[in-house]
Amino acid sequence: MTLRPILIHPDPRLKKNCMPIESVDAALRRLADDMFETMYDAPGIGLAAPQVGITERLFVMDCAAREENAEPLALINPEITWSSDELNTYEEGCLSIPEMYEEVTRPAAVRVRFLTLDGDAEEREFDGLHATCVQHEIDHLNGTLFIDHLSKIKRTMITNKMKKLKKERARGA
Fold first, then answer.
1. pLDDT tens for each residue of 128-172
2. Residue 80 pairs with which residues in a beta bridge?
3. Nearest-angstrom CA–CA distance, 2 and 35
4. Span 57-85, mean pLDDT?
5. Continuous segment of H or E residues that includes residue 59
6. HSE value, Cβ hemisphere, 13 Å, CA-based, for 22
7. What's the CATH fold of domain 12-171?
């Protein structure tokens, strides 16, 4: 497994609509393994392929608390098939927008159809933090960031902070 660099907003690759994955093979499973390692190292609870520069419809997640047993899950070509009318608001963050957190309101529960790393079709219902994570990651696959759910003023402020962070990192500060 290999740690992959995580793209930082603004990066045009984070705004692309990802392509469906045609086949589940050893290379895709290696990518998922790398993404899990990168996500855990960051640390985060979800990571989408475009965040590591791959414009394919794959994300990994693990919403288990650190003291619990890990619940790693990779979703290939995920598609929301149902959303609850009830809403939840969570303070969201993103590995591509480090150290920025804002409240985002989303459906409290969703049902998602996806392929597993074995290539099997599965449909699963998610609620609470898991539902928020799934929706956040599917947004990434559609070229949407959590800040796109915020006001224009907040979005601009966060984007400007990320531009400054990228300049500092490029200088080695």
1. 999 999 999 999 999 999 999 999 999 999 999 999 999 998 887
2. 112
3. 8
4. 91
5. strand 58-61
6. 0
7. Peptide Deformylase (3.90.45)
> Does the reported pTM lie above 0.90?
yes
* DSSP notation for 133-150: HHHHHHHHHTT--GGGGS
Band of residue 173 on the pLDDT scale cut at 50, 70, 90: low
**Nearest CA among 110, 113, 111, 91 for reference residue 101:** 91
Q: Is 137 a catalytic residue?
A: yes
For the chain, give every domain's residue range. Answer: 12-171
Does the pLDDT of residue 68 top 70, yes or no? Answer: no
Q: Name the catalytic one among 56, 92, 102, 137.
A: 137
How far apart are alpha carbons 4 and 49 in whole angstroms? 10
- For residue 65, the model assigns a pLDDT of 65
Type of residue found at 133: C
Percentages (nearest 5) of helix, strand, coil residues in the chain:
35, 30, 35
CA 19 vs CA 49, 52, 87, 140, 159: distances in Å: 11, 15, 29, 12, 26
| Four-residue CA torsion sign, 67, 69, 28, 26 | positive
* Contact assessment for residue 134 and residue 122, using Cβ atoms and an 8 Å cutoff: no
